[in-house]
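If you are new to this repository, start here. Below is one unmodified record pulled from the training split, so you can see the exact layout before writing a loader.
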Amino acid sequence: MGRRRTLVAGMLVLGAALGACASGGDMGVAADSGAAREARGSEGGSGEQFGLADGAGGGDLAALDTSLPPVGPAVIKTGDVTVRVAEGGLQAALSDALEVARGHGGFVLSTDVEEQGDRSGRIVLRVPAESFEEAMADARDLGEVVRERVSGEDVTQEFVDLDARLRNFEAQESVLLDLMAKSATVADTLRVQRELQDVQLEIERLRGRLRYLRDQTDLSTITVRLQESDPVVAGTGLWDKAWRRSVDTFNTIVSAIVVGLSVAIPVGLFLVVLLLLVKLVRPHLPSLGARDG
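And here is the target side for that same chain:
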C-alpha cells in the first residue's frame, strides 16, 4: 500500500511537470507570435497609420515632421527723414517722393503741404519691407538731409503668442459648435451660445491684431519732410534777416498795445461814467438826510 501511494504521488508530480513544460512552450510560442505580430505591425502598420505608402518610411517615425513651421523674424520698420530742397522746388520734390514709392512697389499714404510762410511739405510712404533701405536712400537723394531717424520693432514673439491663442480659441469654438448641435433643450442651447459668442469675439479680435501686424511688417512706413531753403540776396542776407526780425518784433509790440487798449478803453469809459454819476448824486445826499430828520 505504501509503495502504491508513492508511485501515484510520483506520477502526479511528473504529470504536473509535463503540463508546466507544455504550457510554457505554448506561452513561448504565443509570446513569439505576439512579438512577431508587433514587429510586423511596426514595419508595415505605421506607414498606414500616418498615411504613408506601403514600404515608404519603413516604420521610421523620426522621418515624420510633426513640428509647426518656423516663424521668421517679424520687424516693423519705420523711417523719418527731413530734407531741405531749393527755393521753388517743393512741388518737384513731392513728385519725386511719389515716384520713390511707386518705384519700389509702394504707395503714398498721405500728403500735407504748407504754402503760407516757410513753404514745407510732408509725405508719408508705404513700401515693401524688403525695399525699405533702398527707399530710404532714394528719399535722402531728394535734397540736403537735415535730420534722419530709423527705428525697428521686433514683434516676432507677439506673432507666436497670438497664433497660439488663436488656435486655442478656434479649438474651443469647434467644441462649442458640436455641443450646440447636440443640445436637447433651449436652455442648454442658449447657455452654449453665450459661451460661443465670447469665444468668437476673442477670435475676431486676435485675427484683427494679426492682420494689423502683418500689414505693418509687410509694408514699412517712411515719412519724408520737405523744407524749402530761404532766398538769400548776395551781400545783404545778414542785414535782410536782421531787418525782418526787427519788423516782426515791432509788429508784436504794436499788436500787444492794441490788445491792451482794447481792454483799457472800455474800462476807462466805465470809470468816467461812474465818477460823473457820483458827482451828480452827491450834492443831493445831505438834503435827503435832512428831510428824513
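Two things worth knowing about this chain: DSSP finds seven helices and five strands in the chain. The chain has a mean pLDDT of 75.
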